[in-house]
Amino acid sequence: MLRILFLFVVLGAGLFVGTQFSGQQGYVLISIADKTIEMSVTTLVVFIIAALAALFLLEYIIKKILYTSVTTFNYFSVRKMRRSRRYTNEGIIKLLEGDLKGAEKKVTRWANYHDMPLLCYLVASEAALGQGDKGKRDHYLELASQQENSELAVQLTRAKQAVREQEWEVAASTLETLKAEHPGNTSVLELLKTTYRELGEWQALIDLLPKLFKAKLIDAKEQSELEQHAQCGLLEDIASQQGSEGLIAHWNKLQRRTRQSTHLVGCFTKQLIARKADAEAFTVIKETLKKQGNDELYSLLPELNLADAHPVVVLLEDVVKKQPDNAGAQSALAQFYFRAEKWPEAQRHFERALSQRPDVSDYAYLADTLEKQNLTKAAGEVSRKALTLIESK
Predict the structure, then answer these.
(1) Which residues neighbour 36 within 8 Å (Cβ) at sequence distance 6 or greater?
(2) Which of 52-56, 259-263, 297-301 has the highest mean pLDDT?
(3) SS3 for 171-208, per residue?
(4) Which pathway, metabolic or otherwise, does it act in (predicted)?
(5) CATH number of 84-144
(6) Is residue 269's pLDDT more than 70?
(7) Considering Cα of 68, then 74, then 78, then 84, what sign does the dihedral take?
(8) CA 383/CA 366 separation, integer angstroms
């Protein structure tokens, strides 16, 4: 538009000058080497205007040709990209439908023309793994990693696949790297929780729990349960590696709040009993039971291998005297009487325990106690109750 306007301005100026100097055309001489060109001023002006118009026209034609070429190229490129998107969408649907081979074929056919090839290769890796072809899976993941801004998506996909295939070491290595680079990523934290549990990385799981809670991936109840589970696992690992002395040293270093958990006290004393530190186990159980009763701890008392069981019996007799409805204490005391062959006392306490709650082990003990007293018929009835209880579970 500006060029056309410019031509009109020049043409108008020429007409104006022509009218002003009509009959006075002037003379122009152009000499180049041994050649000369002669013309009037009016001819020169007309020639310049014509040359400019031809130049502008040539520029227009060239631009039109280039624009048409680019438009044609863009048309085919967009057409290919749309087709690639359609194939990718169809491939994702086939993946969800379980047609893994069809999904792989669809998403890889036009992946090079997709505006996000990363998506195509990640879907293809899932399809290949679903077919059990880990070689192809790794190939597609490698292609995906060559795309821009693909690191997180590729490594997270790799970790999820490793967890699914129970390749825990691979999953842990990948996820720990991602955690260092993306500490707040909820998918990474969730996968690490599962991986640490399966690998028995208890201290790492304990350290992870506050982050899981902060990210609202677990609630307070689940955090407490996971922490107790991890602490128990850690106690077992330390006991197997360092023995009872190392176990006790570790226990004493724990926070007081942690050591007040009766469940953890049970885990701790079980490991002490397993390493023949029964006296230390009894001391821990006794001090805990003074503060709060717990059936699990009462059930551990008969497992103690003590040179003198009298202190345990005295403790339990004092408990059942104050708490006759304490089934755990009644059962534990009855077992000590059973070992001492005090059959009537054992029978009485087993019956009191069973009156509070059914228990297969107590039924079995009671049946044996009755047999020892030649009460065969009663023993048979008790055995039938035990069988009924087992069948109902």
Answers:
(1) 29, 30
(2) 297-301
(3) HHHHHHHHHHHCCCCHHHHHHHHHHHHHHCCHHHHHHH
(4) Porphyrin-containing compound metabolism; protoheme biosynthesis
(5) 1.25.40
(6) yes
(7) positive
(8) 9
